[in-house]
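Data availability (excerpt). The following record was deposited with the supplementary files.
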Amino acid sequence: MKEDVKKEIYLEIVTPVKVIYRGYVNSVILPVEDGMIGILPRHVNTLARIVPGILIAKTNKASSYFVVGKGFMEFIRDKAYIITDEAEIIEKISLDTLEKEENELKEKLKEIQDKDIREEIKYALLLNSYKKKALQLFLKTKDSTK
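Predicted structure:
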């Protein structure tokens, strides 16, 4: 009897505020402590710490780009659960908005003396830089499919 081979992964990306994504994909590439990890259907069960960076979810039709913050990924029986402090889908972001946000954060960084608040601002700037990179990737792949 032929074994039924799954060709999809259920992916869920969750922040403390809301569910960012819930659906089926063919593969997931995400940033972890040791670099990037790729997950395909029937991958070995995995628990990994996520670091800020770009997450790519691929389907037969397209790739979706997300920026994720710190968190964890659990992959078990073709289900990937991403729990992160920050996540945003790139398709909904404009470069103008990112540049405006970056300038505002840099101005705040000049004014603020409190160490903890400065660290939060630096973290926001780091995520902003990943958003810019992910947006460039998204736009590049969008242009190449025309």
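Summary of structural features: The chain has two helices and ten strands.
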